Amino acid sequence: MAMGSDAESGGLRNGKNDIQSKDHLDAGAVFVLESKGNWLHAGYHLTTSIVAPALLSLPFAFAALGWVAGVLCLIVGAVVTFYSYNLISIVLERLELEGNRHLRLRDMTRDILGPKWALLTVAPMQFAVCLGAVVFSILAGGQSLKFIYLIYHPNGVMKLYEFIIIFGIVMLFLSQLPSFHSLRHINLLSLILCLVYSLCAVGGSIYAGHSKLSEEKDYSFTGSTSSRVLGAFNSVAIIAATYGNAIIPEIQATLAPPVSGKMFKGLCICYTVVVSTFFSVAVSGYWAFGNRSAGNVFNNLAPAGEPSLVPNWLLFTANVCIILQLFAVALVYSQPSFEVLEGKSGDASNGRFSLRNLLPRLFLRSVYVSVATVIAAMLPFFGDIVGVVGAFGCLPLDFVFPVVLYNLTFKPSKRSLIFWVNTIIAVIFSILVVLGCIAAIRQIYVDANSYKLFANL
Fold first, then answer.
1. 40: exposed, middle or buried (C-beta count within 10 Å: 0-12, 13-18, 19+)?
2. Please, what's the largest Cα pairwise distance for the chain?
3. Which of 112, 110, 92, 88 is nearest to 102 (CA)?
4. CB 287 within 8 A of CB 217
5. Reduced to 3 states, what is the DSSP secondary structure of residue 414?
6. Lowest-confidence segment of 64-78, 195-209, 210-224, 410-424 by average pLDDT
7. pTM above the 0.85 mark?
């Protein structure tokens, strides 16, 4: 009942309640997090931040979990993250009613938990998640470009880092889009693109699963007991990273006030896409390839050195959609960093496109994208590192902190159901943070012998 009544009270806001005017905000908040969007735009931003090409690794996660645990983890991930993200939105609305409108996750946690928590835990975690997502997007974009190249030039000599650089150069231009709100049309296209490549993955998996060229399906677990247990926890971290967001306050900041109820509608759009893509890709991919499921289901559909199991046009279509969406994903997760950079270098009293603000923006954003591109080219095994980022960043930020922040803000009775639901979620996922980190680091150790800088993977 507390959740409903407080969410409804957000509807009492009017213009006078928007207590943080532009005069009190830095250039990052004014220019990057401008509040002009509606609930549809929030839905587009949320979908791009969650439904990304990382979902193509879900069959691989299932390989270490099996049917029952895999489906259960997907369901729990969907339910808990939808619940948690909605809690963050409700907390933000409550704080705004109390006279503290926060546009950034670090400001929100500073208000509730104190400056040390915000500075030493939340800020580094969010930075790691956002930078990791940008680097991974650039790397994955380069891999998809190379994938298309090899379809039509099987003996081609171009290296992976060359494709990564090409992707990074395009990102240099796109990164100059001035604000989060300016991405709304790009993110609508992103929503459509993720549906298309997910459909290609599902259709391709079903087609390959019935193909005579496909190997016999095997759903058994392999390896020692310890490796299987750690592999299962690593898969949990992968699924957590796939559901990860870590920028809910920044997305809510793009909404024009009053924001009451808008994020819930946006989440409904997002999770309609989540359910339709995550479950279909995971189930069809694991059904088709079993314990041979690769880190990307399209690597199963077109195995290296072997005949493709699906037509080339399907592979081409899917990878073009993946490349285009990865630009949107990288842009979305760059916004918190861009906001920090402009907050330090910009001047809100001058116009957004004045030379005083334009030149620092052009330089700093270009440096940020260039650094991310170099990391992606230098560390093509970054996918293993994503598991650590998922355990270290996504699990606490998306599963633990939201319920803790809600309990501290609303102080529900210890006899209430919501208090104990939130407490149980916090305890269980805090344990999973530790186990997930151990499993992800162990996976890096196992694969370390195959690591090579600027490798042509």
1. middle
2. 68
3. 92
4. yes
5. coil
6. 210-224
7. yes
